[in-house]
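Before we proceed, please read the two lines closing this message. Let me know whether the structure tokens fit the sequence:

…
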Amino acid sequence: MFIKVFLTIVFLAVMVGVGVYSHKQAKSVDGFVLGGRAVGPWLTAFAYGTSYFSAVVFVGYAGQFGWKYGLSSTWIGVGNAVIGSLLAWLLLGRRTKLMTQHIESRTMPDFFGTRYDSQSLRVVASIIAFVFLIPYTAGVYKGISTLFEMGFGIPYEYCVIGMAAFTAIYVIFGGYKATAMNDFIQGIIMLFGIVTVIFAVLASQGGFTAAVEKLATLPSDADAAVNGGFASWFGPDPWGLLGVVILTSLGTMGLPQMVGKFYSITDESAIRRGTIISTIFAFIVAGGCYFLGGFGRLYDPVIAENGKIAFDSIVPSMLVTLPDALIALVVLLVLSASMSTLASLVLTSSSTMTLDLIYRDKKSLPGEVEEGSIDDIVAEKIERRKVVVMRVLIVFFIVISLMIALNPPTFIAQLMGISWGALAGAFLAPFMLGLYWRGVTPAAVWACFSWGVGLTVINMLAGNPINPINCGAIAMLGGFPVVWLVSLFTKKMPADNVASIFECYKK
């Protein structure tokens, strides 16, 4: 217990120290939200990866899908690395950096408002982002607190409140720069931790070969007479597995807290290096998490009060037999993953509410002259006021998500499915196509917002006739034909305005 407590205290002290150190760079809006748009490839790549993978993945998804698909769940991690990291950086990195800097966009709703010249789109996008980031945040809380409760014997409620408080402190002090620096430290812990834990768990089962042989003897859930499905290449349910790969991989390209990382990176050469770093990080962390979860059936599951398997307890039950030093490492691993994701979520939510709802300044399109500019002193005061409001909203967002986390409605995976399905279903297609295709119309963006949010909410209110994971995947993929078809038959934006926006790619 001394080792666990000591390492945790040191870890939290470093996180807070980085926040205090970064305070001077977080006095302006650009400094607080984007780190001055001067964050290097290593910090950006690790910030992307640590925001991507949290306790939701390590505890919730690895446990639930490792149990359901066995070793084939490793494909989810491979998909996260290839699609969610490599392809996301290749498709979005350069174009997002150039266009958002050109149109002076600081958030994803701000992008929709300026790119499509519609303040209404900006407002609605900010509301969607704020509302649907909350269940994801609650899922992160629940994941880390489940493991903390196992490792320290501290009641779930105290774990949730303590983690929220420490995350709030360093984000409020240091903004995005503190978050990125801490993400780098947390990412190192995650890389070392996941590799060590995998070796330890496999050793406890007699090695990799012995563990796979044990999995191969287990009967399928659908047919008790069929063995070996959990040790096969594509598992007992390949189509269900594909839905999870799509949701968890493609979804990152439409999430505000993920895309925002491309806003802040320094230049195009940094994007190229960040692409490689981020992909390798995802292969190790995501691939390792799901690979580890694939052996969950070799351990006795915890049965919840409703008589069903408590999926969120599968990974903790795998780790509880490890030596104390390794448990301490696991706690730090998941704490690192979760706090980095939480920091990204609360910063995204507060900046969105502040810049896109409370201080919704009308910006000129590139090439236009803005009249009535205010003097520098007044502008500086407004900038500082915005930062103060963002800090207050960070506390507000954390309190709301805490209330949900203290009484979570469902498994972690379902919380994430609802959140990612609505956000990426609404944002992915109009954001990605808006970077490439001049023909996207504001009406098509409205249609995609309605599609993504509408499908997710209706499915949820109807009692989830479509599994939330598959529903999220359908929402994301379906957004592309929705945007394309509606754009063909609705009013186009003025050609001069669109041309001025796309000039950034000629430089």
